[in-house]
Amino acid sequence: MGRVILTGDRPTGKLHLGHYVGSLRNRVLLQNEGNYDKMFVFIADVQALTDNADNPEKVRQNIIELALDYLACGLDPEKVTIFIQSQIPQLHEMTQFFSNLVTVQRLQRNPTVKTEMAMRGFEGGATDDNKRGLPVGFFTYPISQAADICAFKSTTVPVGEDQEPMIEQCREIVRSFNGTYYCDVLVEPEILLPSNLVCRRLPGTDGKAKMSKSLGNCIYISDDAKTLEQKVKGMFTDPGHLRVEDPGKVEGNTVFTYLDAFCEPGDFAKYLPEYANLDELKDHYRRGGLGDMKCKKFLINVLNDRLEPIRQRRHAYEQDIPKVYEILRKGSADAREVAAQTLHQMKDAMKINYFDDAALIAEQAEKYKK
Known about the structure:
By secondary structure, the protein is mainly alpha-helical. 54% of the residues lie in helices and 7% in strands. The chain has helices spanning 17-33, 45-49, 56-73, 89-99, 104-108, 111-120, 136-139, 141-151, 164-180, 225-233, 254-262, 266-271, 278-287, 292-318, 321-350, 358-369, and strands spanning 4-9, 38-43, 81-84, 122-123, 132-133, 156-158, 190-192. A 3-stranded parallel sheet has the order 1-2-3. Helix 3 (56-73) packs across helix 14 (292-318) and helix 10 packs antiparallel against helix 14 (292-318).
């Protein structure tokens, strides 16, 4: 098999613009280019349960939200296999086998794990009322993620830059498995990052960190035009740009960061014809004489232009939810078939395919005849 693409998201709520420019938009481009043999996109509900074990209903409800966002953004189930992680039991077997190849110390050094632990308030061994002990499932989710990737022999994983440590850990597991069992069953994946650096970590509307549901600074892909307008109008700009005539800073100005991520050449002729391109708009803002609201109104038009077709597709799928579940059911069945083939090859390499090993059975039979 040649190029195999795999990527996915946790079902923790509707997807936002950070997801869109960081990965989703790239997935649709890859799908439409067709330069691959297979493409898998999955809903990582098992991973979501590692820190939502007490709230499975939240995960259950968000499955459909994520599926709707996928389909609305343009993922085509005729071209892409969309599946639910928990419905592929082979992944859990692989996770167990891989856990024997990774040390606790290596997991503790994973920067993504450390960051996620801090964000969720987990502390290893904590027992007081203010800190939650660290669930084993959460701590070991890099191993589970490696299983997700390896099960489909993925060569390319389009994700955000915060996932680079996870992909590197997966490559280590592949090398360890193939080396331990003297085989070439598993494939080392490569990360695929957005070419536009701005898209790799889109800030929230407040200008802080990255866009995050927990920080309440998101614009969701499914937001209607009115909601989007309100959020953009409240967006962080340059705190020193107090009057229209004041020179302004573009760097660190969230409005211009979003324009860098979403603006296309034709947008100016359509919505702001007095400027030829984004560079001219930035130069005017730096000189002074350009108000924040004018820039925000332009951004609102740009975002609505990108999102309106997505809203329309989402609305169409919302009218036939059983069809969406059928897409997920079929995708999960197809994914199970592929994962089962890989798991069988792994068991062959590990020599635990006892009932398929005719030579072993014959050898043991001969041994006990003596």
